[in-house]
Amino acid sequence: MADDIRLWTEVQPEIHREDIMRCYSGITLIPGAREMVRALQSRMVFVAIVSAGVDVFVGTIADMLKVDDWAANGFDWDEEGMLRGPAPTQVNSHEKGLMVEKLARIKELEPESIVSVGDSSTDLSMMIPGSGFIGFNPARQRAVDAFEAAGVPVVLEKDLRALWPHIFDGEEFPDSGEGD
Q1: Quick one: which of 31, 47, 49, 150 has the most CB atoms within 10 Å?
Q2: What is the chain's alpha carbon radius of gyration, rounded to the nearest angstrom?
Q3: Which sign, positive or negative, has the C-alpha torsion 40, 105, 124, 60?
Q4: What is the pLDDT of residue 4?
Q5: Which domains occur in the chain, in start order?
Q6: Residue 139: Cβ-neighbour burial (10 angstroms; 0-12, 13-18, 19+)
Q7: pLDDT tens digits for range 124-138
Q8: How far apart (Å, rounded) are the C-alpha atoms in residues 175 and 159?
């Protein structure tokens, strides 16, 4: 994130929190996101987002989906809301499993009850020993290759509901009668 901030401040030396917020306005969710989270939570499944992305963006998505918890990286702001730089890293893109393990300890979850979902090869780091992983909508061939090498299921369809049969052993997604 420090590299991104350096590039931004070369163009605009002073960046206010509202400038960053405007960058993330108009976020749209992937099809099936709300329905998937609701259906998982109706089965008492703890749903968390672990991202090496920006907390302003991830937090907005987490609020929209009403997930149980989330972790991401943030910015350091001064008293006037001006960007000073990155906040200390909470989630390293190659070590997301550390946050998954932390959430598992806090929520007293057994690794066998955890299924992580990701779209990049670095997301495989969320697959802690004993847990599961599903590759979802990979954007790069490198991710597809990594998922295949890891022997994890891969969902190419761009709808989160397509994950359901992989999580619940072939079961079809429950029809709620509600749209996106």
Answers
A1: 49
A2: 18
A3: positive
A4: 85
A5: 1-29+46-91 (no CATH), 93-166 (3.40.50.1000)
A6: exposed
A7: 999 999 999 999 999
A8: 14
